[in-house]
Amino acid sequence: MSDTAATLTQDRQKLEMAALSAPAVIFTVAMIAFPVVYTIWLGFQHFSSTGKQSFAGLANYSKLISDYEFWHGLWVTIALYVLSLVLQLVFGVWLALVLFHAKRLPGIVRSLFISPFMMPPVVAGMMWLVILDPSLGAANYILQSFGLPPSDWLASPSLVIPTVALIDSWQWTPYVALIVLGGLQSLPPSVYEAAQIDGASPFRTFQRITLPLLLPTIVTAAILRSVDLLRFFDIIYITTQGGPGNASNTLNIYGFRVGFEFFNIGYASALMLTLTAIVFGAVLAFNRLRGAVAW
Amino acid sequence: MKARMLATRLALPVFVIAAACAQAHAADFDWMKFKGKTVTFLANNNPVAQALLTYKADFEKLTGMTLKVDGYQEQQMRQRLVTVMNANSDEVDVFMTLPSREGEQFAAAGWYADLTAMAKNEVAKEYDPAGLSQALLKAATFSGKLTSMPMNIEGPIFYYRTDIFKKCGLAAPKTIKDVEVAAEKIKACDSAVTPFVSRGLKPAVAYTFSNMLHNIGGSYIASGKSNLCSTKGKEALDTYSRLLRDFGPPGVVNYSFQQISALYRSGRAAMAFESSNELRTVMEGGARLKDTGLLPFPAGEAGHVPTTIGWGIAVSSHSKQPEAAWYFVQWATSPEVQKKMALQGIAPPRPSVAKDPEYRKWIDEEPVRKEWQAALDVLATKGSSEVGYPIVANPQSREFIGQAVQDLILKQKTVDQACADADKALDALIALN
User: Fold this and answer.
1) May I ask which residue range the UniProt record assigns to the signal sequence (chain A) (predicted)?
2) What is the pLDDT of residues A206-234, one digit of tens each?
3) In this structure, which of A212, B27, B148, B239 has its CB flanked by the most CB atoms within 10 Å?
4) In B295-334, alpha helices (H)
5) Residues of A in contact with B393 (CB under 8 A)
6) Which domains does chain B have, with CATH numbers?
7) Mutating which of B253, B259, B263, B408 best tests the A interface, going by the most A Cβ atoms within 10 A?
8) Is the predicted ipTM greater than 0.90, yes or no?
9) Chain A contact for B260, CB < 8 A?
10) SS (H, E, C) chain A
């Protein structure tokens, strides 16, 4: 076959491939692009409480600056995010190590430990709502049977964020552990053999070898959890609806209420786009960190 | 403007009655007129809709239409409705609505079809629109337009444990002061039970608090301004929050109907102020059947002004087949269907159904049902449908009422501070009206 004929065949193949994949690409782009573009457009609209719509320019965004609930929601979102992420990464790594070294019935142990994140968040929220009920729940019963004072848990403005963070960590720490476990299993055995020959203690081995080598995996887990945690919604909606008062009113909950309970879709869109920008910012920051810790 | 609105709201039920008496077209009415059509019903998956949909097949057989049910929990139903309505979509023909909550807002947004003409011209002989609760019809009438037909009648009522009251030497409370005295005595007499429980969850507070405010003689708005800092308003805020703070369960700020019913049903509350709809849930298992007394919420300085609301069933203004949709609305609110629903514990919005011998027999089976019906009769005759501020942004107004009550329960503000902050925020909402 001549060069020209070969080139023509290649070009035709490329064209065919492009034609075959085009519907899927167009569909995917449309499904992602349309809601985003529509939300951006909504963010520039003003919806009166009677549903009348008008162009608002940047008014929805300038309103954010003076909106106490927005800044409070941002603070709650970040506090919940940082607390939950730290808990899930610390305990996720610990759980991964436990699972990695589990000698007896490893399959059963792993299935048991990772089962919480298979539970729908709404079910998890309902379950913890019952357990943490200050009057009827098991949590206070256990505390009191050990002579400890009962707690208001989700009903206390000062405890609600740590409590929600604990619920989310109960559910998602096994997910982090599963990712870290994958990382642990891929670590080269040669470095551990060398450390053993040098007489390194288990703690020293963890500190100087395991943790640095696991960092890219941990950062990946952090990215995945960040996306979810910054959009925290379901468990809060089920357990507190943003209360008591507005103590657990995250940006996502606030946006939902503004949009679907107070029917101000324009301002809710501006809130949600701001939250999306924060999520993107966090992901980008972690991506840079992942580049820095790669080995 | 307000006077005109009031006049039209008062005039409409009269008009409906007159129209019903005329029923010029009743003789020509044909249930099969829209045979073959499909009506989509956006339903709240609550006991009212559940009871109604038990008879879905009857509607389809009667009309030859297909009823497509799109059922969600209350919040999700509204979420779906907002999406559909904002898109001017005809996906939903009929939807459930709470006129006391979103009526002003949905009416102002033009989401309700005007049922006035259909209720006049397209009614079956047996429909009897005049037999529906006039108070509820009035509550569903905005700017002279009838926006929904009542499906049930409900409101918060007072549940109390007769055995605990007897043990502590107490009589059934007649006034709000009696409730406070009873709570104090029960706290000393039986430390194992929570003396009093009602709603503390922020968005849910207005439902029960409104009854307290109105019984005390307070009002939400006076001279176009929020009135929570009036003497009566402050008294209502103080009394309601004090009862929950000093005599309520721990964590009451997260309590809505689910938690209240569970606490009372388990025997761990002596008094509960909760919806009449919760009777069935509270009586599940039968443990509270013989030791519960029911009353309208005890009187305040203004006597009994109970909160009376009802779910309504409305036709979407975007529906392309409003007349077929109306046939479903009419069937769902007909005396026959409402009687069947009443026998499942859904309080009927028709006095005629409440007097029906079969329904009376069901009521007479248990003393607690008799007390329930007696309380509902008071709700039907003396009730106010004002839950939160009577403004377009009613749902948002409930947030600020709830916030004020929670601030007091959690001792984060004084009564003066809480009412002043609420009034400031609510004045801004009223100004948008």
Assistant:
1) none
2) 888 899 999 999 999 999 999 889 988 99
3) B148
4) 322-332
5) 49, 262
6) 2-153+308-374 (3.40.190.10), 156-307+384-431 (3.40.190.10)
7) B253
8) no
9) no
10) CCHHHHHHHHHHHHHHHHHHHHHHHHHHHHHHHHHHHHHHHHHCEEECCCCCEEECCCHHHHHHHHCHHHHHHHHHHHHHHHHHHHHHHHHHHHHHHHHHHCCCCHHHHHHHHHHHHHCCHHHHHHHHHHHCCCCCCHHHHHHHHCCCCCCCHHHCCCCHHHHHHHHHHHHHHHHHHHHHHHHHHCCCHHHHHHHHHCCCCHHHHHHHHHHHHHHHHHHHHHHHHHHHHHCCCHHHHHHCCCCCCCCCCCHHHHHHHHHHHCCCHHHHHHHHHHHHHHHHHHHHHHHHHHHHHCC
What's the pLDDT tens digit per position in A134-160? 888 899 999 999 999 989 999 999 999
- Whether residue B250 and residue A135 make contact (CB cut-off 8 A), yes or no, is yes
Could you tell me the two tokens for B328? 């479903």
pLDDT tens track for B384-429:
889 999 998 898 999 999 999 999 999 999 999 999 999 999 999 9
Cα–Cα distance for residue pair A283/A290, rounded to 1 Å? 10
CB-based contact A260 B82, cutoff 8 Å: yes
Give the whole-angstrom CA distance, residue B325 versus residue B310.
Answer: 20
Which of A47, A263, A267 is best to mutate for the B interface (most B CBs within 10 A)? Answer: A263
Amino acid sitting at position A40: I
CB B364 within 8 A of CB B357: no
A133 contacts in chain B (CB < 8 Å): 251, 259
Q: Which of residues 99-118 of B touch A (CB under 8 A)?
A: 105, 108-111
Tokens representing B278 are 């919760």
CA distance A239 to chain B (A): 8
